[in-house]
């Protein structure tokens, strides 16, 4: 019984440590139905500076794999030649600074100099990266966007955690796609 409690506690800890994914937007064109499409492929991803970085390419592949698995689970087939649906991926990452404001409870007790003053100020606590992924589904025959979804999350530093967060985010983003 004690082992079950420890396992349950570890599982809850891992779930709590997974960064939350927020769906900012999910919008379909009028009359869009995923059942009207049989095959899909990805647009080529281009970037000004980061495409030569192996870590960047690895992260793109993690995202593509998660999207491919989600669309395959919905009945579509990945086809590099003449697909019905094209998937466009847009990625934006920003470095954020986490701060907190000092309070008067933290003020030093010693005030030995007359000109000494203490001010409440913002103190840097940590830094993190936040990412936004936009997934557009484009009807290849008409070259018209038929669905758009946007997801946001904090980007984990560890590779294994990144894969879990991406998988969770893509499943959440594409979960209601019909």
Automatic annotation (TrEMBL):
Presence of the UniProt keyword Phosphoprotein in the record: no
Gene3D superfamilies: 3.30.160.670
Membrane keyword on record: no
Signal peptide annotation: 1-24
Source domain of life: Bacteria
Key words of the record: Signal
Pfam family, one: DUF4136
Domain DUF4136: 30-175
Name assigned to this protein: DUF4136 domain-containing protein
Annotated organism of origin: Adhaeribacter aerolatus
């Amino acid at each position: 019984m004690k082992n079950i409690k420890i396992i349950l506690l570890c599982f809850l800890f891992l779930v709590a440590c997974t960064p939350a994914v927020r769906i900012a937007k999910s919008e379909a064109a009028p009359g869009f139905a995923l059942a009207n499409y049989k095959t899909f492929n990805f647009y080529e991803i281009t970037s000004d500076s980061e495409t030569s970085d192996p870590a960047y390419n690895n992260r793109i592949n993690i995202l593509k794999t998660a999207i491919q698995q989600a669309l395959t689970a919905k009945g579509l087939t990945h086809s590099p030649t003449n697909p019905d649906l094209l998937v466009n991926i847009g990625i934006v990452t920003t470095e954020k600074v986490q701060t907190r404001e000092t309070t008067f409870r933290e003020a030093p007790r010693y005030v030995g100099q007359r000109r000494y003053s203490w001010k409440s100020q913002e103190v840097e606590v940590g830094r993190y990266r936040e990412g936004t992924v936009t997934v557009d589904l484009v009807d290849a025959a008409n070259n018209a966007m038929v669905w758009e979804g946007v997801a946001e999350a904090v980007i984990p530093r560890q590779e294994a955690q990144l894969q879990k967060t991406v998988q969770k985010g893509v499943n959440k983003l594409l979960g209601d796609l019909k």
